[in-house]
Specification:
This protein is an alpha+beta fold. Helices cover 65% and strands 11% of the residues. The strands form two sheets. A four-stranded antiparallel sheet has the order 3-4-2-5. Strands 1-6 form a two-stranded parallel ribbon.
Length: 305
């Protein structure tokens, strides 16, 4: 049985809201500025380039394959293992402009065949992704994130109340912006795999937020004579143990996958490790303060809350 974290006295989270919310707003602004000024380093999926699928008759590894090909002058974007490791099959992605995309695809095939001839390479498939197709895929991905935020906002509004929706949506936007910001800072490649990780993190983060919202609503219904600030403090304290266990266990698993899972999933679990920290933080210090703000804002306008 998992250990239980219980606190005899409610922690005064509300007193921390002004400072923590200010920090969150600053980080969101900085991330937005980085996206506009520096931008993301897009992978072949979003930028265009060549993809070569190759199978080897002898055992090899993605890291060795990447290092060997880069020594020939190729700028390898990604080397991804396909299927089981025993199958020795890989997908090699190389960024290229529209003018030389076919030449780059041909060069990759030649270098694999010649440089790694001792490993028995067999070219299975050669594909090219044009810049226009990559741009369309990038736009579709951004729309997927946008509509997921809208859908979650509607869901929270229907399940709880319209007062809760802005907090959920803005906290998720906070998570997405900070993840994109860290990719701008580190220069790591942003591709379809990472987009999938971002969308998964949106679902993970809203789950934690909904648990906190549920407890706030329960406390509100059970103690209407108590101020909302105290209700939020009690709700956050009651769910803190659950948050420590779930987020902590998930983070440890993702950290081990990041450290020992290999290069193929390295960036995917880097996204998850950072996203879990940001998502847990935003549930407490972004989503919850905005509920308090919405209550006060609606109260000042004489609406029933």
């Amino acid at each position: 049985m998992l250990p239980q974290f219980r606190f005899s006295k409610a922690i005064n989270f509300v007193s921390m809201f002004p400072v923590m919310t200010g920090i969150s707003a600053l980080l969101m602004i900085l991330s937005a500025v980085l996206l506009v000024t520096k931008g993301l380093t897009y992978g072949v999926d979003f930028k265009g380039g060549a993809e070569v699928q190759v199978k080897f008759s002898k055992p090899t590894e993605a890291g060795f394959l990447r290092n060997t090909l880069e020594k020939t002058g190729l700028s390898i974007s990604q080397v991804q293992q396909i299927g089981e490791p025993i199958e020795n099959e890989f997908l090699i992605k190389v960024a290229a402009s529209e003018k030389d995309i076919n030449a780059v695809a041909q060069k990759v095939s030649q270098e694999v065949t010649q440089t790694l001839s001792d490993y028995g390479p067999e070219i299975r498939k050669v594909d090219v992704v044009g810049p226009k197709a990559g741009e369309q895929l990038r736009i579709s991905g951004l729309w997927a994130v946008f509509w997921s935020l809208i859908g979650i906002m509607i869901y929270v509004g229907l399940r709880f109340d319209i007062k809760y929706s802005p907090g959920a949506a803005i906290s998720l936007a906070h998570d997405v912006l900070l993840v994109l910001g860290i990719f701008c800072i580190t220069g790591k490649e942003f591709n379809l795999q990472i987009l999938g990780a971002v969308l998964a993190l949106v679902g993970y983060s809203i789950n934690d937020t909904v648990v906190i919202y549920d407890r706030i609503r329960e406390n509100e219904e059970a103690g209407r004579e108590t101020s909302l600030s105290k209700l939020i403090n009690v709700a956050l304290t009651d769910t803190l143990g659950r948050t420590i266990l779930t987020s902590g266990c998930t983070f440890v698993v993702c950290l081990f996958m990041f450290l020992f899972g290999g290069g193929v999933i390295h960036d995917f679990f880097f996204t998850f490790c950072f996203g879990i920290i940001v998502g847990t933080y935003s549930s407490v210090f972004v989503a919850s303060p905005l509920v308090l703000f919405m209550y006060k804002w609606l109260d000042r306008r004489g609406r029933k809350v």
